[in-house]
Write a structure and sequence with these properties.
With about 450 residues, the chain is of the alpha+beta class. It contains ten helices and 20 strands.
Length: about 450
């Protein structure tokens, strides 16, 4: 799906209502944005962005058009437009024929529903949180230190037995997957770089709840980003091991965290004592595993190929067929359809079930390594199954180790520049007369 506009406005710029649209035959994009911006939920989001940015940034909007059940809608995403990545808050759908007809994407169930139904569901969730039910915070609150693991629950230690009783009660009140709030998993992220650490949860509990509630880790984007920011290497490793697919979003979060580390070290000098524990920092290790997984993103499909589509649905135009084992660049890994770029430079959507990475691969990948960061230098092909190790990088190249063999691996942008220099064109589109009618959806 091609992003058409990004709007960044303060609430003061949207004082005009959509009353003037009622008589119009169609709802304009500006009218749709006005309606969304006037919603109480969006006003709260706007105040939140203003507060965390000290009024330097404002709530942002990304718009596009989409068809839902044969009706045309404006899709309007509200969110925070950071320096390196976009963070979505809510996705609204405004009927192009009637500004007052609004649908909302309910993120937990994945259902697109009328805004009134969505509000009732949200109120029900809030009431449930405010009820006398046993919440996740009773297990893991701000002062919690849990160094024992799920395997230790049979230990007769009084502290462990007390926790076991609390866990049993929580699970009795939350027996189903839909009873568990994925956002609670952020309570299990550790930050050991903080000088006055009074909170620690053994990472095995993250595995425990992911497995117990059968959570699809590909949906845990916010959790992964939080794990990177908090420099929790074990949490990052767990999510990757469970099948999380790394995209450009995570690469940018790594860059942000590396920059934050530099700032924290500078602050240590100004304060005269070490508030940020440099020896506990894991961001460089996180950077290596993130980059390694990213470089291993590829297609796996039992049919031998999958379709790159123009938009996020199975009826969308097919832009290209991507063979199983082919490496791809994942630009955005949010939702059920990932925005990807193929080695030929084509950008489109592939269903997330067809994208695998690193150790999750059942296929070997061949890497062409160079002796120097120069395409004219001696090169060799190395077959690897799983991860590769990035030792260091220079402009446009990564120095890597694959099965014990070291060499320079060109990044995608470097390879594209080389293609242009050689005026060598590739195509990945099969001729129409070679493509048989297909039944596969993806």
């Amino acid at each position: 799906m091609k992003i058409k506009f990004v709007y960044i406005f303060s609430l003061l710029m949207f004082a005009v209502s959509c009353d003037g649209q009622k008589k119009a035959k169609r709802c304009s994009i500006d009218g749709a944005i006005n309606v969304v911006n006037s919603l109480p939920e969006v006003k709260k989001q706007s105040k939140f962005v203003d507060s965390i940015s000290q009024n330097k940034k404002h709530l942002s909007f990304i718009t596009d058009s989409i068809e839902i059940k044969n009706h045309q809608y404006y899709m309007i995403k509200t969110g925070f437009n950071g320096q390196f990545h976009w963070e979505t808050y809510t996705i609204f759908y405004v009927d192009k024929n009637n500004c007052s007809e609004i649908l909302v994407d309910e993120v937990v169930s994945g259902e697109i529903m009328p805004i009134n139904k969505w509000r009732k569901l949200k109120n029900k969730q809030v009431n449930k949180m405010n009820s006398n039910s046993f919440s996740f915070s009773y297990l893991f609150n701000e002062g919690t230190v849990v160094k024992f693991t799920p395997k230790d629950l049979d230990n007769t230690n009084p502290e462990i037995q007390k926790f076991k009783r609390k866990l049993k009660r929580y699970e009795e009140e939350h027996p189903l997957s839909e009873d568990f709030d994925k956002a609670d998993l952020t309570s299990l992220i550790n930050n050991e770089t903080f000088f006055d650490l009074q909170y620690y949860i053994d990472s095995s509990w993250l595995i425990y709840f992911i497995d117990k509630y059968k959570i699809d880790v590909t949906t845990l984007n916010l959790l992964m980003n939080e794990a990177i920011k908090q420099e929790d290497y074990k949490a990052v490793e767990i999510l990757i091991g469970k099948g999380y697919i790394i995209s450009n979003i995570e690469l940018n979060v790594v860059k942000e965290t590396q920059e934050a580390k530099k700032n924290n070290i500078e602050e240590n000098g100004k304060e005269g004592f070490e508030m940020y524990l440099v020896e506990k920092s894991k961001i460089e290790d996180i950077s290596k595993i993130i980059k390694s997984q990213y470089l291993n993103n590829h297609i796996e499909d039992l049919d031998g190929y999958t379709n790159l589509r123009k938009e996020k649905h199975t009826q969308s135009e097919i832009l290209q067929k991507v063979k199983t084992g082919e490496k791809i660049e994942v630009l955005d890994n949010t939702g059920d359809w990932f925005l990807v770029k193929t080695k030929e430079g084509k950008t489109g959507y592939i269903h997330k079930s067809r994208v695998k990475s690193g150790n999750n691969s059942s296929h070997s990948t061949t890497y062409k390594l160079y002796d120097r960061p120069d395409f004219s230098s001696f090169s060799r092909e190395v077959i690897a199954k799983g991860e590769i190790e990035t030792v260091h990088n220079i402009e446009g190249w990564d120095f890597v180790k694959v099965n014990g063999v070291t060499g320079y691996l060109p990044r995608e942008e470097t390879k594209e520049q080389q293609k242009v220099a050689n005026n060598h064109k590739h195509t990945f589109l099969a001729e129409e007369d070679e493509i048989k009618p297909e039944k596969k959806g993806f």
